[in-house]
Give the backbone structure.
Amino acid sequence: MSSMSIPETPTAGTVLVVNKGDRTLALVDAQTMKVVDVIELSGPGHEVAAHPELPIAYVPIYSNAPVGAPGTDCSTIDVIDLVGGRRRTTSELNVPCRPHCAMFGSDGLLYVTTEVTKTVTVLNPATLSVVRTLNTGHAQSHMLALSPDGTRGYTANVRPGSISEIDLESGTLLRTIEIASEINRITLSADGSFAFTADQHQRQTRPRRRPPGHRGAVQPTTPRIAPHHRRSGISARCSASTTGTPKPASRRRRASGITDRSSASTSRPRRNNTWSTSARIAEGE
């Protein structure tokens, strides 16, 4: 895809909501909570990432089936003009890969999980050309978290029940952290020292930490049992990104007013309890 002509006016204070069933992207005013626009997508999108500087959103087109289930293996990403309220283009990755979780790294590149190929694909957001691919080593690498310093990536591998830790600079898969039989979602603490993921079956929390002097190594600490902070009505059916006043720590996000915030859905939560699992990933104390 050639370089895009990108609008310059930001759309601060807008929540972006992907509606999987309707195959649309809704723009919601963050103050009034009213839908101000609905944009048709080219297929079943699950997640959305807002450009940190420009009023552009990226929606990976995933599959007509849930994670791990038989269905279409899509391979495209929709580029959305938030000012014009339209889909500008659909970029082809040329490999059936089920692109899913998208987010911007501190290097300004777009990182997208491409779970069928057990990779994270790194893209130039201006052209959506592939910069490099990062091997996760496991199937169903569904969700992604990036460390604040831009050196590490962590994927939640759903039914392997593990976290892959990737060196973003070298592209090396550092290790696999075994968590449970099935997990989903992943996020990092503000300082990047803890990763949190949701065990889909067990009521448990497993903090982990690195031993001193061992970069990337983890050791289990004493388990603590605590319920997952369940977000009512949340599922993978719909995700949201917020454009609004960014955190002061990020100069680029401060300038643009665009940031990724949350996930949301109108579907009901699962009947079985979901419990959080955390892993200590910072250098040893």
